[in-house]
Amino acid sequence: MSRKRGTKAKPVAKANLKKENDQFLEALKLYEGKQYKKSIKLLDAILKKDGGHVDSLALKGLDLFSISEKDDATSYVANAIRKIEGTSASPICCHVLGIYMRNTKEYTESIKWFTAALNNGSTNKQIYRDLATLQSQIGDFKNALISRKKYWESFLGYRANWTSLAVAQDINGERQQAINTLSQFEKLAEGKISDSEKYEHNECLIYKNDVMYKAAGDIQDKLQNVLKHLNDIEPYVFDKFGLLERKASIYMKLGQLKDASIVYRTLIKRNPDNFKYYKLLEVSLGIQGNDKVKKALYAKLEQFYPRCEPPKFIPLTFIQGEEELSKKLKEYVLPQLKRGVPATFSNVKSLYQRRTSKISPLLESIVLEYLSGIDGKQDPIPFIWTNYYLSQHYLFLNDFPKAQKYIDAALDHTPTLVEFYILKARILKHLGLLDTAADILEEGRQLDLQDRFINCKTVKYFLRANNIDKAVEIASLFTKNDDSINGIKDLHLVEASWFIMEQAEAYYRLYLESKKRLDDLTSSKNEVKSDESEETADDIKDNKWLVQKYKGLALKRFQAIPKFYKQFEDDQLDFHSYCMRKGTPRAYLEMLEWGNELYTKPMYVRAMKGAAKLYFQMYDDHLKRKADVIDEESEGSENNGASSNSSQKKKAKKEAAAMNKRKEAEAKSVAAYPTDQDDDVFGEKLIETATPMEDFANCFYDNYSKQAREDDRDYVLDFEFNYRVGKLALCFASLNKFAKRFGSTNGLFGSMAIVLLHATKDNTRFDVILKKVVTKSFEKDYSEVLPLNETSSDSFDWLKFYQETFNVKDIRGLLFLYRYREEVALEQSYLKEAIINNLSLLEPHAQNEVLQYQL
Amino acid sequence: MARDICTLDNVYANNLGMLIKLANVTVLDIYEDTFFTELFAEDTSVTKNKKANSKKDVRFTQLAYYSEIQVGGLVARLVPKKQNELSLKGIQIEFLGVLPNYRDKSIGSKLLKFAEDKCSECHQHNVFVYIPALDNSAKEWFIAHGFEQHGDVFNNFIKRLNGDEQDAILLKKHIS
């Protein structure tokens, strides 16, 4: 084997070289046999003679990584790479580096080295398979296709390779080629499919039909072909639902509605509880707009399937006549109440949401009438569940007193039902009585300690009430607490994002509260300015730590969420080969789709927005600090002068020691990861960052921004981010898109526009050219909506303008302005007043939230 | 066979809270929480709460369910020896209660039957209960279920949590 050497290798005698080479190959074998330590021993012998032996350095790195000495591994690998010019190393060395990079999840690098191994003459065809997997993982499907093809050429005997090739072709839009590939293999395998391979075969057949269907578009001949193929493969396909659904949609596309309706009826027969089939049946029968025919249809279907929900329920969604609707509702709801179905309200909730004005008065009178006719003693079960229903009904209508009345009636009657406690707590939550709500749930939880649901609910409510200690204590009842005093570590391990999210938000609220308190303390101290205020000084120190702790922990928890999502993304890696081997291309493609919108999932977005508040604040503080850096310097020297006194120094030292002790103790109860994997338990390093916006982009925003679809992006977040990184043109773009979607009288539009207009003033920190661009754009698009000329005048009343022009009922717009009040020079008190005036439109819980944490 | 709408089941450490709730709702101000928590103090194993080996009293506990909802409870103690002249040996009912809205459904009878069965199992011949002398409805109920008054009124026998004291009568039923 010819091997290139690193440039620094000294010329050695040929015999020596050969010996070295043999030794290295021996070490490689040991590595493959997982005897890492022995392998390292051999490599050390080589390296002793020739410290610049790149292959050995790389392999030793990989060995070290495998025995989880990761830091040493990094330095060896870095050393090896330093000695290599570009990628001109031996193919084995490149391969080793590729494997190392894959292990450390640096996929792009890994691809680079795998490719280099092949370019430098490796004959190891397996590399193509690994390469294809990695390329699929980073979404480079074009090159993945090339790798798949190469691998397929070398190993034609495996079905997995044909399937992978077809999938790669499909993803790259080469549909016809994909079909050909699949057909070719079918021909080869004809008559040779064993029983154990039948499932894989069926998946590949229906997958081929998928590809054909996608390729056919709306072209009639092609669709006929797809249909024919579908009929041909029918006996071999196990997924009968998928097959029938496909068949129906082809008929629909072909305009053969009668045939389609027959298929849908078959589907309903197979599963009469699937609402989707009923809707599609309506479409295929062409009766969507015809209530009369629809009624007849569902009456008929109800006879066929008397025990099924959809035929009973669907008419409730379209019947207009009040009398008839009332009758139908009675027939639907009352039997459930009679039987004591707890979920009765949930069953009709979608009706409430879609037809509130029509449905809710009708159901209210029906159920009230029913309740008046039953006696709590004679029919306890219908009685309690009807009260439960009515409580939910009034809660839905935001009539809290009545909701409370009915749930209390139920609770008085039967105080042993956990559901009632949950609902009661929910009502109290809406009223903003978070502590009482948590206590009520705790009372309910005591009734049944093994109920995980109420356990989780109670935890959540305690977190909402900022009672983190109690919440953790309760949550820990259900976690594995082997080597820690509570369940925090386990909850991170099992990726319980709901808990971590709620805890993060609770920490954030506590941070805001303690910060407010600290501000109060410091301001009052400044007023007193005497030596007696030692107590306040201690108080301040205490509070400073609390502020820092809560802030750090909030960010730490928010950060934990994207870690999970990163893990989800990485978890896909195995499936690029696994799905092919198992022959499940359809599931594989579904997974890819899921992966493509992973970072737009609600939990991720929520964590991002939570973290954004902290990061944006940190960035704004940085700016402010820069602005009054001179003040601080003078203050700092003053402090130094004061503490030079030796006794004071001692005291400070003592205090620091006490603080460290306290921190150590607290660390045990808040640690989220094993000690050896986490050197920043309190998130102190996170909040000390000098580059908050970069951190935010790296950890949260970039991934989201890449995946978010244009039609459900959060333009306000985009705006706020780009505003801080100084990209005013992008801000304007977000503003524009926002206006297109929500209209230019929306309060948030007004606020963003006002902030952006002020950014274009001469004395702001933004780039001059960008300012000009934005000004021009404003002139072009919004000269009629916005008072562009007033930007430079100091006397213009922007708040008044805002209130006259935009929808002030949407409180979010005013709150946005409030956050940027310094930038747009608005008087805080007026703004506050305006917000408070509009608060009454919110429910009590939301009002509290605004008053406590946003003003 | 259709399931009976009313069923009995053991009390476990995990649903002890139900029993406490039921006791506090049906019989006010009598039981301290420790009375119940002690039932599971020694071990929280979910097997029987009979503690045959321990020196502590043997107690039998049950929860009654109506349509899967806990509506009644029973705590009974095995009294193997007479404690004084006036007392009895046998099974003492310490708590037996059903939520007011679920009465007259033979739920209490079921719980009582359970106590009586235990009585025979333990080779005892008396089931007895102390009730407030003034509580006529309770008295009627027990008498309707075959109890008889035993002895005179015990003055200030029942001590309530709020410090009040009440007279009590002893009712007993002989199990052959």
UniProtKB/TrEMBL annotation, chain A:
Keywords assigned: Repeat, TPR repeat
Low complexity bias: start-end ranges: 637-647
Region called Disordered, residue ranges: 630-658
Gene3D superfamilies in the record: 1.25.40.1010, 1.25.40.1040
Top-rank taxon, per record: Eukaryota
UniProt name for this protein: Nat1p
Organism: Saccharomyces uvarum
From TrEMBL, chain B:
Residues covered by the N-acetyltransferase domain: 18-176
UniProt keywords, alphabetically: Acyltransferase, Transferase
Name of a matching Pfam family: Acetyltransf_1
Keyword Transferase listed: yes
InterPro entries given in the database record: Acyl_CoA_acyltransferase, GNAT_dom, N-term/lysine_N-AcTrnsfr
Domain of life: Eukaryota
PANTHER family tied to this protein: N-ALPHA-ACETYLTRANSFERASE, N-ALPHA-ACETYLTRANSFERASE 50
Protein name: N-acetyltransferase domain-containing protein
Organism: Saccharomyces uvarum
Encoding gene (name): SUVZ08G2770
